[in-house]
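Practice problem 4.
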């Protein structure tokens, strides 16, 4: 099982980027599969920003990105996307996608959030830099 994150880059504040998380050996829209996006900002702990359980339509956004970021999936490409709009310098981070199971889905449904230990498979990070 592998996840491949891509789409990061350098963008000015107010701009947009779309991150992709492509799965291999895993169906990102399968029952009991949650795909989460996390980020790690310099000097900060890893933060879960958005997640999706495509099979039941569950989506989660942290307070810091709600209204600006949008998560979606494409079954044909077996890929989860994170559309990031109205980017701010504080969004600068390395972004990771990860796959989890039922505990991760339950946490999203209950609006508890994304917890790293509930995601077993991680992709490599992709750097997002937002200049002011």
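Answer key:
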């Amino acid at each position: 099982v592998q996840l491949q994150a891509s789409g990061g880059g350098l963008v000015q504040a107010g701009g947009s980027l779309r991150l992709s998380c492509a799965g291999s050996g895993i169906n990102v829209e399968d029952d009991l599969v949650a795909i989460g996006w996390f980020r790690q900002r310099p000097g900060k702990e890893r933060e879960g920003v958005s997640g999706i359980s495509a099979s039941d339509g569950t989506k989660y956004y942290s307070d810091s990105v709600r209204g600006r970021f949008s998560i979606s999936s494409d079954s044909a490409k077996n890929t989860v996307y994170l559309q990031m709009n109205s980017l701010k310098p504080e969004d600068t981070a390395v972004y990771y996608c990860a796959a989890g199971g039922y505990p991760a889905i339950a946490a999203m449904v209950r609006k508890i959030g994304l917890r790293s230990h509930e995601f077993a498979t991680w992709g490599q990070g992709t750097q997002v830099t937002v200049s002011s």
